Amino acid sequence: MDPPKHTKMRNLINKTFTPKAVNELSQRIQDVTTSLLDQAKEKETLEMIHDFAAPLPVIIIAELLGVPAKYRELFKNYSDILVSGAEDDSDEAFNMMMKRRREGAKFLNDYFKEIIQERQKNPKDDLISLLLAAEVDGERLKEEELLGFCILLLVAGNETTTNLIVNAVRYMVEDTNTQETVRKNLSLVPNLIEETLRFYPPIQAIGRTATADVEIGGHTIRKGSQVISWVAAANRDEQKFEQPDRFMLERHPNPHLGFGYGIHFCLGAPLARLEAKVALSVLLTTFSKLELAKHTELEPIQSPFVFGVKSFPIQFSL
Fold first, then answer.
1. How many CB atoms lie within 10 A of CB 210?
2. Domain holding 106: CATH number?
3. Which residues form a coiled coil (predicted)?
4. What span, in angstroms and rounded, lies between the C-alpha atoms of 55 and 61?
5. How many domains does the chain have?
6. What is the pTM of this model?
7. Structural domain that includes position 25
8. Which residues of 39-67 are buried (b: 16+ CB within 10 A; e: fewer)?
9. Residue 234, domain member (yes or no)
10. Is residue 241 part of a domain?
């Protein structure tokens, strides 16, 4: 989507999804984080994804959208389906992937359509009600526009934040010096987050459609062609970053593309950063040591553009 339609939608959403509104979620994020880690303490191993990094953003976003607790796990499952790839290169695997994606999209579309219609009749104190009431120059979001935003927020918010938290912990497990440095000085947590977004970006690639013929690097890209921008490669550009293959806590400036760039910069970036900051700070103060469980072989997420692992079991010391 491009201007002027994109500008209108962005302005409408910005009226409710403000930095102030996001910052007001800080205490709730802290409470959910503490509760999840209190439960984890009772176990011998913390399954970083399923016990912590996945439920945290699901709970927060579900509460924002007014989704009842009983649907949260189902929403997470469909969110995963919408970003998953095919099991192999066969036509059968591709068709199965598309079938599952269609089913997931239909469920979420039908559910949010019902919620939107209910909020139109009986507004509540949630993001959907606020977005329905938002107005810029006499215009409001259409139902299909709000539907698209709800699904985008659910899917992008879950996957990005979950993998941002896990990827940051993954690096700290790989480099225990960084883990100890940040634990002793929690003011470095934002640095850890930004360098993780560069070094281990949750989103590896972003698709775009050419709106006109353009020549890049001696190659002509025709109008209407699909283009894949490799964020992960750009984040390791030696012309932009000093020692790009080295994780540097003190890297400044850090113009990574982890949340995109320009007018399409991720709307949910402030929320993802806040959730990651609270989650990692509480995690490091709760546990004195984090290490990957013995005999663990990490298995990548089955996705063409999301960077993460299916499971990340952690052994910890209190």
1. 15
2. 1.10.630.10
3. none
4. 10
5. 1
6. 0.86
7. 5-202+262-317
8. ebeeeeebbbbebbbbbbbbbbbbbbbeb
9. no
10. no
